[in-house]
Amino acid sequence: MPQSVLLVLDVQSLIVERYADPDYLSRLGRAIDAARRAGTPVWYAQVGFRAGFPEVHPRNKMFGALARAAEDGPARQQPPNEIHPAVAPHPQDIVVTKRRVSAFSGSDLDMLLRAAGVDELVLTGIATSGVILSTLRQAADLDYGLTVLSDACADADPEVHRVLVEKVFPMQADVATVADWAAGL
Question: Does the structure show a pLDDT above 50 at 41?
Answer without folding.
Answer: yes
